[in-house]
Amino acid sequence: MPPRISNSTLHQTRKPTWIKVRLPSNPVFFSTKGLIADLKLHTVCESAQCPNRWECWSRGTATFMIAGDRCTRACRFCAVSTAKPLPLEEDEPRRIAEAVRRMNLKHVVITAVARDDLKDGGASHFAHVIRAVRAIDPSLVVEVLTPDFNGKEWALQIVLDAKPHVFNHNLETVERLTPLVRSRAKYRLSLEVLAMAKRLRANLVAKSGLMLGLGETESELLQAMDDLRETGVQVLTLGQYLRPSPQHFPVVEYILPAIFDYYKDVALSKGFEFVASGPLVRSSYHAADFSPLTFPNFSKNTNPG
Prior knowledge:
The chain is an alpha/beta fold. It is built from ten helices and twelve strands. Helix 8 packs parallel to helix 9 (218-231). The termini are far apart.
């Protein structure tokens, strides 16, 4: 296995060279930014300070974050604001659909802040958005990245009844670190949500992601992979955790690109259908690269019933 590198040998505030990203110069970036502002939409790209927003927006892609930009949880890894949420905007599904139309998207990713203030955790709003974008183009691949809905099966069923093609819920980190990193979230509950989604709609694609560099050991990471496979997860993303601010959880380790390649091979050997693994990989990074439409084994899922 390749050697590891930790903050004991790197300045705490200095990112390694393989983490750095180039600033935008592509005009598509600015047109995407303008479109999102014009329709008064939120994106996880901005709210979560995603390092890939320059690249994705330059390609004309974005991950839409619905139900506002105020989260009811305070996870120590996340840059999204924690505050009392505002009421849901009834016309948001229409505005998301209009953005999809203008951008001529073929694969859309829809995520949301945690809305523990709502009885259904925002599940009905997810369903409204999914149906609105599918009405624009029935061939559109719809991927959702949801919170855990506090494990409410009936709430999850609302989302699945809208027939997304890809259901993503991130495990985020290994079991030992979950209480330190994810506010109010539980490792086993996240696994239950993923297993529940596969049980309720077996022909959808299940996806999850893990951050590296939080202090996890290799054996813990491999156990998390095994736990995800046990639930039926088919697609896995592995990326480097980057600290949004000094108030967030510290980066314990910067993982070399060669190690991400190593973990990708390990994950594939464990049976994952597709693995995106690299320092700048995030849940929705190049999401269309592992769309159901690109895999013969998933072709039967393009119109989940």
